[in-house]
Specification:
With about 200 residues, the protein is an all-alpha fold. The protein has ten helices and no strands. Helix content is about 70%, strand content about 0%. It starts with a helix and ends in a 14-residue tail after the last helix. The longest helix is centred in the last third of the chain and has 27 residues. The model has no long low-confidence stretch (mean pLDDT about 90). It folds into two domains: about 45 residues, Arc Repressor Mutant, subunit A (Orthogonal Bundle); about 130 residues, Orthogonal Bundle (Tetracycline Repressor, domain 2), CATH 1.10.357.
């Protein structure tokens, strides 16, 4: 990695950590520059605005997410419904380890940002919605495979996947509000019981 790319990635990593553990509005460019050990001129060389930075953070985190625990959880070698168990376990242990390290649950970066900026910035809202659609599609593909194998009865996999994602995000939000990762552990088993019936009309 050359120094130019290294500087850009350092800015993103600093911003990602602070946006996730605090909020987008609460973290200023000056703080990011100080923590990344760069001058403001260097920041604006890579990111014309704070909004450009958060768009890059979303892309970076989504890539890490897709290639990390999501890839592991939705491994095609796992039986379909075990993949959903893996998602719950991963969410639980991630939030629990964050609390042990920092004293609080950070929640989901995408969910946090959606709550904070969706009514203020349509570009950011669309970017976050694309991430959620990608996550929903993982659930849908898993459900379709489970139906095909006769593991679960036929259902509306599109809307069930969307409901599962909403339930997962809701659990994480509730756990964050209570600062208690055990919320995810207690409620997680219900995720596999979500069913949206096919509309035959």
């Amino acid at each position: 990695m050359n120094s130019t790319n290294g500087t850009r990635e350092r800015i993103i990593e600093v911003a990602k950590s602070r946006f996730h553990n605090r909020s987008y509005a609460d973290v200023g460019i000056r703080e990011i520059c100080d923590m990344a050990s760069i001058q403001k001129g260097s920041f604006y060389h890579f990111f014309p605005s704070k909004r450009d930075l958060v768009l890059a953070v979303i892309d970076n985190f989504a890539l890490d997410w897709a290639n990390g625990f999501v890839a592991e959880a939705f491994d095609p070698l796992l039986p379909p419904m075990e993949r959903i168990d893996y998602v719950i376990d991963a969410a639980y242990f991630w939030q629990r380890s964050s609390k042990e390290l920092n004293g609080h649950i950070p929640g989901c970066l995408f969910g946090n940002l959606a709550l904070e900026v969706s009514t203020q910035d349509d570009v950011l809202r669309a970017k976050l919605n694309a991430v959620f659609i990608s996550a929903k599609d993982r659930f849908k593909d898993t459900l379709d495979e489970a139906i095909e194998q006769g593991i679960i009865p036929p259902l509306d996999s599109e809307f069930t996947a969307e409901a599962m994602l909403a339930y997962l995000e809701g659990m994480i939000l509730l756990a964050k509000a209570k600062n208690d990762p055990e919320v995810i552990y207690r409620l997680g088993s219900a995720l596999k019981n979500i069913r949206i019936e096919l509309n035959t009309h």
